[in-house]
Protein backbone atom coordinates (compact mmCIF):
# COMPACT_ATOMS: atom_id res chain seq x y z
CA UNK A 1 0.00 0.00 0.00
CA UNK A 2 0.99 3.63 -0.38
CA UNK A 3 1.53 5.56 2.82
CA UNK A 4 3.28 8.59 4.23
CA UNK A 5 6.15 8.10 6.64
CA UNK A 6 7.90 10.56 8.94
CA UNK A 7 11.54 9.73 8.28
CA UNK A 8 12.89 11.87 11.14
CA UNK A 9 11.75 14.79 13.24
CA UNK A 10 11.75 18.00 11.26
CA UNK A 11 9.80 20.19 8.86
CA UNK A 12 7.18 19.08 6.33
CA UNK A 13 9.95 17.77 4.06
CA UNK A 14 10.34 14.72 6.35
CA UNK A 15 6.91 13.44 5.22
CA UNK A 16 7.93 10.88 2.60
CA UNK A 17 5.61 8.81 0.34
CA UNK A 18 6.53 5.13 0.73
CA UNK A 19 5.34 1.66 -0.23
CA UNK A 20 4.60 -0.54 2.79
CA UNK A 21 3.21 -4.06 3.16
CA UNK A 22 -0.57 -4.19 3.44
CA UNK A 23 -1.61 -4.41 7.11
CA UNK A 24 -3.31 -7.56 8.37
CA UNK A 25 -6.21 -7.49 10.80
CA UNK A 26 -5.47 -9.12 14.14
CA UNK A 27 -7.82 -10.28 16.87
CA UNK A 28 -10.67 -7.81 17.23
CA UNK A 29 -9.43 -5.67 14.34
CA UNK A 30 -10.51 -4.63 10.86
CA UNK A 31 -8.82 -3.12 7.83
CA UNK A 32 -10.38 0.07 6.46
CA UNK A 33 -9.72 1.25 2.92
CA UNK A 34 -9.34 4.95 3.59
CA UNK A 35 -11.24 7.33 1.35
CA UNK A 36 -10.51 10.47 3.37
CA UNK A 37 -7.84 11.01 6.02
CA UNK A 38 -8.20 13.60 8.76
CA UNK A 39 -5.44 16.09 9.53
CA UNK A 40 -4.99 18.14 12.70
CA UNK A 41 -2.44 20.75 13.66
CA UNK A 42 -1.08 18.54 16.44
CA UNK A 43 0.35 16.20 13.80
CA UNK A 44 2.66 19.00 12.63
CA UNK A 45 3.92 19.43 16.19
CA UNK A 46 4.47 15.70 16.70
CA UNK A 47 6.36 15.58 13.40
CA UNK A 48 8.41 18.57 14.53
CA UNK A 49 9.67 16.84 17.67
CA UNK A 50 6.82 16.22 20.10
CA UNK A 51 6.72 12.52 19.27
CA UNK A 52 7.99 11.25 22.59
CA UNK A 53 5.07 12.97 24.32
CA UNK A 54 2.73 10.81 22.25
CA UNK A 55 4.64 7.54 22.15
CA UNK A 56 5.90 7.70 18.57
CA UNK A 57 9.43 7.86 17.21
CA UNK A 58 10.57 8.03 13.56
CA UNK A 59 10.16 6.33 11.26
CA UNK A 60 6.40 6.19 11.71
CA UNK A 61 3.20 6.65 9.72
CA UNK A 62 1.37 9.69 11.11
CA UNK A 63 -2.34 10.23 11.45
CA UNK A 64 -4.99 9.20 13.92
CA UNK A 65 -8.26 8.95 11.99
CA UNK A 66 -9.73 8.16 8.59
CA UNK A 67 -13.08 7.42 7.02
CA UNK A 68 -13.61 4.63 4.55
CA UNK A 69 -14.92 1.13 3.95
CA UNK A 70 -14.16 -2.03 5.94
CA UNK A 71 -12.47 -4.45 3.54
CA UNK A 72 -11.35 -7.25 5.87
CA UNK A 73 -11.92 -8.47 9.41
CA UNK A 74 -9.74 -10.29 11.89
CA UNK A 75 -10.55 -13.15 14.26
CA UNK A 76 -13.40 -12.40 16.61
CA UNK A 77 -14.95 -9.73 14.39
CA UNK A 78 -18.36 -10.24 12.80
CA UNK A 79 -18.33 -10.43 9.02
CA UNK A 80 -21.27 -8.01 9.09
CA UNK A 81 -18.70 -5.20 9.28
CA UNK A 82 -17.48 -5.97 5.76
CA UNK A 83 -18.48 -3.27 3.32
CA UNK A 84 -19.65 -0.84 5.99
CA UNK A 85 -18.62 2.79 5.86
CA UNK A 86 -16.96 3.83 9.10
CA UNK A 87 -14.75 6.32 10.82
CA UNK A 88 -11.66 4.70 12.29
CA UNK A 89 -10.65 6.99 15.13
CA UNK A 90 -10.48 6.83 18.92
CA UNK A 91 -6.78 6.05 19.16
CA UNK A 92 -6.23 4.63 15.68
CA UNK A 93 -2.66 5.21 14.48
CA UNK A 94 -1.02 5.30 11.08
CA UNK A 95 -3.94 6.70 9.08
CA UNK A 96 -1.84 8.54 6.47
CA UNK A 97 -2.20 5.44 4.32
CA UNK A 98 -4.42 3.68 1.81
CA UNK A 99 -5.23 0.94 4.32
CA UNK A 100 -5.75 1.53 8.04
CA UNK A 101 -5.84 -1.11 10.78
CA UNK A 102 -8.26 -0.33 13.59
CA UNK A 103 -9.87 -2.04 16.55
CA UNK A 104 -13.51 -2.87 15.95
CA UNK A 105 -14.32 -1.25 19.30
CA UNK A 106 -13.00 2.03 17.89
CA UNK A 107 -15.18 2.15 14.78
CA UNK A 108 -18.02 4.61 14.33
CA UNK A 109 -20.53 3.76 11.58
CA UNK A 110 -21.14 6.67 9.22
CA UNK A 111 -24.88 7.44 9.17
CA UNK A 112 -26.81 7.50 5.91
CA UNK A 113 -26.80 10.94 4.38
CA UNK A 114 -23.31 11.91 5.54
CA UNK A 115 -20.37 11.75 3.16
CA UNK A 116 -17.12 10.08 4.08
CA UNK A 117 -15.17 13.30 3.69
CA UNK A 118 -17.46 15.13 6.07
CA UNK A 119 -17.20 12.20 8.48
CA UNK A 120 -13.40 12.31 8.33
CA UNK A 121 -13.52 16.03 9.03
CA UNK A 122 -15.31 15.30 12.31
CA UNK A 123 -13.17 12.35 13.39
CA UNK A 124 -10.90 14.32 15.72
CA UNK A 125 -12.33 17.79 16.03
CA UNK A 126 -15.91 16.63 16.42
CA UNK A 127 -14.94 14.50 19.40
CA UNK A 128 -12.94 17.25 21.07
CA UNK A 129 -15.46 19.99 20.36
CA UNK A 130 -18.35 17.97 21.76
CA UNK A 131 -16.28 17.09 24.83
CA UNK A 132 -15.29 20.71 25.44
CA UNK A 133 -18.84 22.01 25.13
CA UNK A 134 -20.07 19.30 27.51
CA UNK A 135 -17.21 19.83 29.94
CA UNK A 136 -17.49 23.59 30.39
CA UNK A 137 -21.28 23.44 30.30
CA UNK A 138 -22.10 26.09 27.70
CA UNK A 139 -25.70 27.20 28.21
CA UNK A 140 -28.16 29.69 26.71
CA UNK A 141 -27.19 33.29 27.36
CA UNK A 142 -23.52 32.57 28.08
CA UNK A 143 -21.07 35.06 26.61
CA UNK A 144 -18.51 32.80 24.91
CA UNK A 145 -15.15 33.88 23.47
CA UNK A 146 -13.55 31.38 21.07
CA UNK A 147 -9.87 31.78 20.15
CA UNK A 148 -8.84 30.10 16.92
CA UNK A 149 -12.45 30.30 15.80
CA UNK A 150 -11.62 29.69 12.13
CA UNK A 151 -9.72 26.44 12.69
CA UNK A 152 -11.05 22.93 12.23
CA UNK A 153 -12.25 22.64 15.81
CA UNK A 154 -12.93 26.35 16.31
CA UNK A 155 -15.49 26.35 13.51
CA UNK A 156 -17.32 23.50 15.24
CA UNK A 157 -17.21 25.24 18.62
CA UNK A 158 -18.74 28.36 17.06
CA UNK A 159 -21.60 26.32 15.63
CA UNK A 160 -22.22 24.31 18.79
CA UNK A 161 -22.17 27.33 21.10
CA UNK A 162 -24.47 29.24 18.74
CA UNK A 163 -26.93 26.33 18.62
CA UNK A 164 -27.01 26.28 22.42
CA UNK A 165 -28.09 29.92 22.49
CA UNK A 166 -24.82 31.47 23.64
CA UNK A 167 -23.63 34.92 22.59
CA UNK A 168 -20.53 34.01 20.60
CA UNK A 169 -17.49 36.16 19.91
CA UNK A 170 -15.14 34.46 17.46
CA UNK A 171 -11.51 35.58 17.36
CA UNK A 172 -9.24 34.74 14.45
CA UNK A 173 -6.71 36.33 12.10
CA UNK A 174 -7.63 37.97 8.78
CA UNK A 175 -10.77 39.21 7.06
CA UNK A 176 -11.56 36.00 5.18
CA UNK A 177 -11.46 33.90 8.33
CA UNK A 178 -13.58 36.40 10.23
CA UNK A 179 -16.17 36.34 7.45
CA UNK A 180 -16.33 32.55 7.74
CA UNK A 181 -16.71 32.67 11.52
CA UNK A 182 -19.53 35.20 11.26
CA UNK A 183 -21.28 33.03 8.67
CA UNK A 184 -21.11 30.04 11.03
CA UNK A 185 -23.11 31.88 13.68
CA UNK A 186 -20.79 34.14 15.67
CA UNK A 187 -22.55 37.25 16.95
CA UNK A 188 -19.33 39.25 16.73
CA UNK A 189 -15.84 38.66 15.35
CA UNK A 190 -12.49 40.10 16.39
CA UNK A 191 -9.11 40.04 14.63
CA UNK A 192 -6.45 39.23 17.22
CA UNK A 193 -3.51 39.92 14.93
CA UNK A 194 -3.20 43.52 16.11
CA UNK A 195 -2.99 45.47 19.35
CA UNK A 196 -6.14 46.23 21.25
CA UNK A 197 -8.03 43.10 20.31
CA UNK A 198 -9.11 42.42 23.90
CA UNK A 199 -10.66 45.91 24.01
CA UNK A 200 -12.55 45.00 20.85
CA UNK A 201 -13.94 41.91 22.59
CA UNK A 202 -15.21 44.00 25.49
CA UNK A 203 -16.72 46.51 23.09
CA UNK A 204 -18.51 43.72 21.20
CA UNK A 205 -20.01 42.59 24.51
CA UNK A 206 -21.09 46.05 25.59
CA UNK A 207 -18.37 46.22 28.23
CA UNK A 208 -19.30 42.86 29.75
CA UNK A 209 -16.87 40.07 30.61
CA UNK A 210 -17.08 36.60 29.06
CA UNK A 211 -18.60 33.67 30.91
CA UNK A 212 -16.68 31.08 28.90
CA UNK A 213 -13.26 31.26 27.22
CA UNK A 214 -12.50 28.47 24.74
CA UNK A 215 -8.79 28.81 23.96
CA UNK A 216 -7.56 26.76 21.03
CA UNK A 217 -4.48 28.92 20.46
CA UNK A 218 -2.59 29.21 23.74
CA UNK A 219 0.56 31.28 24.21
CA UNK A 220 0.31 35.02 24.73
CA UNK A 221 -3.11 35.24 23.08
CA UNK A 222 -4.59 32.83 25.58
CA UNK A 223 -2.91 34.61 28.48
CA UNK A 224 -4.13 38.00 27.25
CA UNK A 225 -7.69 36.69 27.02
CA UNK A 226 -7.82 35.42 30.61
CA UNK A 227 -8.57 38.84 32.21
CA UNK A 228 -11.69 39.02 30.02
CA UNK A 229 -13.26 36.13 31.95
CA UNK A 230 -15.90 37.01 34.53
CA UNK A 231 -15.64 35.90 38.14
CA UNK A 232 -17.20 32.45 38.33
CA UNK A 233 -16.50 31.83 34.64
CA UNK A 234 -15.09 28.79 32.87
CA UNK A 235 -11.91 28.48 30.81
CA UNK A 236 -10.92 25.64 28.50
CA UNK A 237 -7.23 26.05 27.62
CA UNK A 238 -7.09 23.08 25.27
CA UNK A 239 -4.98 24.41 22.41
CA UNK A 240 -1.33 25.17 21.76
CA UNK A 241 -1.38 26.17 18.10
CA UNK A 242 0.90 29.08 19.01
CA UNK A 243 3.54 26.59 20.18
CA UNK A 244 2.64 26.42 23.87
CA UNK A 245 -0.37 26.41 26.15
CA UNK A 246 -1.47 29.66 27.76
CA UNK A 247 0.08 30.41 31.13
CA UNK A 248 -2.73 31.00 33.59
CA UNK A 249 -2.46 32.55 37.05
CA UNK A 250 -3.89 29.65 39.04
CA UNK A 251 -4.04 31.66 42.27
CA UNK A 252 -6.03 34.41 40.57
CA UNK A 253 -8.36 31.88 38.96
CA UNK A 254 -9.04 30.24 42.31
CA UNK A 255 -9.63 33.57 44.04
CA UNK A 256 -12.09 34.59 41.32
CA UNK A 257 -13.92 31.26 41.28
CA UNK A 258 -12.95 30.48 37.69
CA UNK A 259 -13.10 26.82 36.68
CA UNK A 260 -10.10 25.78 34.58
CA UNK A 261 -10.08 22.94 32.05
CA UNK A 262 -7.02 21.84 30.11
CA UNK A 263 -5.81 19.38 27.52
CA UNK A 264 -6.09 16.53 30.03
CA UNK A 265 -9.84 17.12 30.21
CA UNK A 266 -10.27 16.21 26.54
CA UNK A 267 -8.24 12.98 26.68
CA UNK A 268 -11.03 10.45 26.56
CA UNK A 269 -11.02 6.68 26.79
CA UNK A 270 -12.04 4.81 23.64
CA UNK A 271 -15.70 4.16 24.60
CA UNK A 272 -16.31 7.85 25.33
CA UNK A 273 -14.47 8.90 22.18
CA UNK A 274 -16.68 6.61 20.11
CA UNK A 275 -19.80 8.00 21.81
CA UNK A 276 -18.73 11.61 21.21
CA UNK A 277 -17.83 10.87 17.59
CA UNK A 278 -21.20 9.23 17.03
CA UNK A 279 -22.94 12.28 18.46
CA UNK A 280 -20.91 14.59 16.21
CA UNK A 281 -21.81 12.56 13.11
CA UNK A 282 -25.48 12.61 14.12
CA UNK A 283 -25.36 16.39 14.62
CA UNK A 284 -23.85 16.72 11.15
CA UNK A 285 -26.31 14.48 9.33
CA UNK A 286 -29.16 16.40 10.97
CA UNK A 287 -27.70 19.67 9.71
CA UNK A 288 -26.83 21.20 13.07
CA UNK A 289 -23.07 21.34 12.49
CA UNK A 290 -20.77 20.89 9.53
CA UNK A 291 -17.03 20.54 9.24
CA UNK A 292 -15.41 23.27 7.19
CA UNK A 293 -13.25 21.40 4.68
CA UNK A 294 -11.24 24.10 3.00
CA UNK A 295 -8.85 22.01 0.95
CA UNK A 296 -8.19 18.43 -0.11
CA UNK A 297 -4.75 17.09 -0.98
CA UNK A 298 -3.65 13.81 -2.54
CA UNK A 299 -2.11 11.57 0.10
CA UNK A 300 1.26 11.99 -1.61
CA UNK A 301 1.05 15.75 -0.94
CA UNK A 302 0.88 15.42 2.84
CA UNK A 303 3.93 17.68 3.14
CA UNK A 304 2.09 20.42 1.27
CA UNK A 305 -0.89 20.04 3.61
CA UNK A 306 1.37 20.40 6.65
CA UNK A 307 2.98 23.51 5.19
CA UNK A 308 -0.44 25.07 4.67
CA UNK A 309 -1.51 24.26 8.22
CA UNK A 310 1.66 25.68 9.72
CA UNK A 311 1.34 28.83 7.63
CA UNK A 312 -2.30 29.28 8.77
CA UNK A 313 -3.03 29.45 5.05
CA UNK A 314 -6.43 27.78 5.18
CA UNK A 315 -9.48 28.09 7.42
CA UNK A 316 -11.19 24.98 8.69
CA UNK A 317 -9.66 21.64 7.80
CA UNK A 318 -7.48 19.99 5.21
CA UNK A 319 -8.08 16.36 4.23
CA UNK A 320 -5.79 13.86 2.55
CA UNK A 321 -7.31 11.72 -0.20
CA UNK A 322 -5.54 8.38 -0.82
Automatic annotation (TrEMBL):
Pfam family, one: ADH_N
Protein name: NADPH:quinone reductase
Record domain Enoyl reductase (ER): where: 10-320
KW Cytoplasm (keyword) present: no
Organism from which the protein derives: Micromonospora arida
GO MF term set: oxidoreductase activity
Presence of the UniProt keyword NADP in the record: yes
Record keywords, A-Z: NADP
